[in-house]
Amino acid sequence: MNAGYNFASGPSGLPAAVVERARTELFARADDGSTAFEQPFTGEAFGATLAHARARLKDLLAVPDNYHILFLAGGATQQFSMVPLNLLGDASHVAYADSGHWSQRAIREAGRYAAVTIAARYEGERPLAAPPLSPWCLPDDCAYCHITPNETADGIAYPALPDCGAVPLVADVTSCLLTAPLEVARFGLLYAAAQKNLGIAGMTVVIVRDDLLRRPAPLVPSSCDYRAQAAQGSRANTPPTIAIALAGMMFDWIAQQDGLAGMQARLQRKAALLYDAIDASGGFFRAPVAPGHRSPVNVRFELARPELTTPFLDYAAQRGLHHLHGHSAFGGLRASLYNAMPEEGVHALVTCMADFMRRYG
Ligand code: PMP
């Protein structure tokens, strides 16, 4: 039976092959009688799982040797604090581009620890867009500049990366990591919570250049000290072992599907199919974000008649198309097309939209 398609923004669907592999491997008993859930984090078995996940991710993203890959407990929101606490050093300023909901949340949190300069923001009306790529306002005494390349809630993606000169670029790539190739060397630090494209909730990947591993602020909890976690291979305390095992399985699955080039090609086809259907609907459905700035991963759209939103969500759910509601801050509709979403899911969605339009248009 087809259980339907999960368009949730996160946690979201996993590839069926990964769920199946997890079902058999995680519950299998090793020679000592333990399942993956029961293995000590300092032991050989989990050590191999961790090393595998790290090596696979390094390979997929071609992470240069002067970067550390950390698998840390907690979500991306935790990194909103950990980034300034670990990277501020002797500087007093940090710069953030305001591109929407999640960058604003990061800005609010950073403001608790440092003076925040807004490097850029889009001031226009609809259609919505990412901040202009220049000029950016970066103060002299600036530890880093933070961007959110893909705004999960707003459905906005930067068309290109800004040039921040010598100021290290830090990016919250929670909703876009591993959906396309990424030049890691352009960044000082990247972080992504796992529950969208890398597996399950409870773990965040941090990729940090080694020269940025400074002495953290005195009050940083020791489990959140990047330097200590890097020195101890993410095992300064108990890491989220099962989330790391799942991430390793996701990385294997991505590698089998032609890696990040394969993910990107598939994502572009899925996003084009859906945005084309929205644009061709004669205004019945509409996308609030300008072409060129539309997220391929989180497709935000709405009905010209907002009173049809709930009927549409019900109609879609009856056809097995689930979790299409927009972010609570914006309402409307949103289809998240993470790596696990098969192309058939998007075909089913555009067919559903056309049928709904025939009925209510
Ligand atoms: N940043 C972005 C871009 C996100 O999409 C999310 C979650 N939707 C977060 C941060 C927050 O992540 P978490 O819930 O894991 O703290």
TrEMBL record:
A Pfam match: Aminotran_5
Catalysed reactions, as listed in the record: O-phospho-L-serine + 2-oxoglutarate = 3-phosphooxypyruvate + L-glutamate; 4-(phosphooxy)-L-threonine + 2-oxoglutarate = (R)-3-hydroxy-2-oxo-4-phosphooxybutanoate + L-glutamate
EC code: 2.6.1.52
Record GO cellular component, one term: cytoplasm
GO biological process, one term: L-serine biosynthetic process
Similarity comment text for this entry: Belongs to the class-V pyridoxal-phosphate-dependent aminotransferase family. SerC subfamily.
Quaternary structure, from the entry: Homodimer.
Protein's name in the database: Phosphoserine aminotransferase
Upper classification of the organism: Bacteria, Pseudomonadati, Pseudomonadota, Betaproteobacteria, Burkholderiales
Gene label: serC
